[in-house]
Amino acid sequence: MGFVFSAIEKLGPAGLVVKAILGSLVGISLLIGFIVLRRWYRARYFRRRSERTFALRTQWDDIVSGKIPLRNWRLDALDSEIVESILLDGIETATPEQLPGLVDCLRRSGLVDLRISEARMEHGWKQRTALLALGRTRAVEAIPALAEALDSPSRETRIAAVRALGRTAHREAAIPILDCMAAGQLDVPEHALKNALVHCCGGCPEILLNYLQQSQGSVRELLARVMGELASAGLGEDLLVLAADPLPEVRASAARALGGTNTSYTLPALHTLADDQEWFVRLRAVLALGQIDDLGKIRILLRSLCDTNRHVRQRAAWVLAQMEPHLQQILEDVVAGKDDYALQTFISELERSGAIDQVISNLEVRAGYESVHAALLEVVAAARRQVEMTGKATAAAAGSS
Measured between alpha carbons, how far is 267 from 296 in angstroms, rounded to an integer? Predict the structure, then answer.
């Protein structure tokens, strides 16, 4: 070895180049050795994990029921990790009958307590991992630890806490979220809050009412959107109060909620909302009218078919075009309204749904209706020519490009 170094020294300035080359070769060799060693270790780990997963799966029913003592797998880090992963995956798809047994196994093994401790003591990604795991357990005792994380200075941790609370799907998990929102202390994206509240309040939307009445601004609008997705006839006349709210977003959410009620007050309330000054409130009302089973909605939809906003007109035409037993009478009423925009919109929807030929053929050409029949045929022919011209223009543009 000394001979090699002495030979390099004799090279003078060229020896520096030789030393650099040798150093690079040594570094490359060490890096290759590290990569090979790491790949070998990971292959060994995954092979052992696969073997242990297979072994635990063969005893799975006895592990969940408790016939196999916890000490047989709980004190082994790899076995414990595998069992927890299988339990959490099973909870995601479990039936109501299977769920209590899986959650009870997590409790008896102490894995829930371990995750609660990590959620309170760890920081960064370890804490967020523990929070999300706690949410997947759906254990009620995890809610206090998740609620504490809502006060974290880290925005990512707060988001993880909100998502975890939503995954528990317990109404108790909605309380800390709503309290923080009411106090204006929860800086979290709206979509995360909405998803969490929808999951937690799915079976009890009335829990949102008190907070909705006390909140203002964007918080009130967000709670109204959640209410719009979850509301049912059980809320009663509380929806009528929301339909008269000064905030347009709240009125629009009330219109959406009314579509799922189908009660005696549904049609009058939607009638009022269909005349709202905000176009998107009228649009929500028209969509809600399509969900209720009341022929009285036809008169409201015919008026919405003449709305100044094209989105409202199109949706009204779409709803009317679905009322197949009454299409002929509706078509005659649209023609009698003498609104060209309304007629063209409705004809387009009938054309799109494929019902236009049957409606035209069934229209009786009787005294006083000859002009109506001819006008309809002319409108249909013009609409078809326009569709053909649009198709040809699109094809020509695609060919030139």
Answer: 8
